Amino acid sequence: AYNNMAIAWLRAKDYEQGIVLLKKSVEINPEYQKGFENLADVLMQLEKFAEAIEYYTQFLKLDPKNDQAFN
C-alpha cells in the first residue's frame, strides 16, 4: 500500500513525500524488493547517488541475480 501511495506522490512530482512513503514500505517489509528498487530509482533521478547506492545494494542482497540495479 505504501509503495502504491508513493508512486502516486511521485507522479504528482512530490518527491519528498514519495521517498518518505517508500522508506516506510521497506521499513515495514524489509524483504520488499520493489520498494528498494523504486526508492533507489527515485533517488538516482534526484541525483542523490550515495543514498541510491545504499538502496540498490539492499535490493541486490534480496535478489542477487536481478540485473535491474545495474541499468
Fraction of residues in β-strands: under 5%
The N- and C-terminal alpha carbons lie at a distance of 26 Å
> Total helix count?
4
Tell me how many strands there are: 0
Percent of residues in helices comes to over 70%
Uncertain stretches: none
- How would you classify the helix and strand content by structural class? mainly alpha
Any idea what the shape is? globular
Largest sheet: none
Q: What is the N-to-C order of secondary-structure elements (H for helix, E for strand)?
A: HHHH
**What is the radius of gyration computed over CA atoms, rounded to a whole number of angstroms?**
11 Å
Mean pLDDT: 92
Describe the structure.
- With 71 residues, the protein is an all-alpha fold.
- Helix content is 72%, strand content 0%.
- It contains 4 helices and no strands.
- It has helices at residues 2-11, 15-28, 33-45, 49-62.
- The longest helix has 14 residues, at 15-28.
- The termini are far apart.
List keywords for this structure.
single chain; about 70 residues; mainly alpha; 4 helices; about 70% helix; globular
In short:
With 71 residues, the protein is mainly α.
Write the layout of secondary structure elements.
Blueprint: H1 2-11, H2 15-28, H3 33-45, H4 49-62
